[in-house]
Design goal:
The longest helix has 20 residues, at about 20-40. Helix content is about 45%, strand content about 25%. It has helices at about 5-15, 20-40, 85-99; strands spanning about 45, 50-55, 60, 70, 75-80. The strands form 2 sheets. A 3-stranded antiparallel beta sheet has the order 1-2-5. Strands 3-4 form a two-stranded antiparallel ribbon. Belongs to the bacterial histone-like protein family.
């Protein structure tokens, strides 16, 4: 699902709100998550999962086109850990198929 599909689904589920209102809510949500992660925080959505960041050390990489060695700087990358309820719902179909 992409952002526009999410906005459309929310519009369908909440016909009393305009598309612009829903777009502002979705943007505010994503902005809040990004702001929290930028400041080294963590965002936990019960039943869904938790967003955090992880540190990646500087390393030597390789340009796949030329094969040249390239220095890759240290950086923080986003990390998502799914919650217990999400894992259970995702695996519900596999458990039922096995029975």
């Amino acid at each position: 699902m992409i952002r526009s599909e999410l906005v459309q689904k929310l519009c369908d589920d909440h016909p009393d709100l305009t598309g612009k209102e829903i777009e502002r809510v979705v943007s505010a949500f994503f902005d809040a998550v990004i702001d929290q992660l930028q400041h080294g925080g963590r965002v936990e959505l019960r039943g869904f999962g938790a967003f955090s960041t992880r540190e990646r050390d500087a390393r030597k990489g390789r340009n796949p086109r030329t094969g040249d060695t390239v220095d890759v700087d240290a950086k923080r990358v986003p990390y998502f850990k799914p919650g217990k309820e999400m894992r259970e719902r995702l695996n519900l179909g596999a458990v039922q198929a096995a029975e």
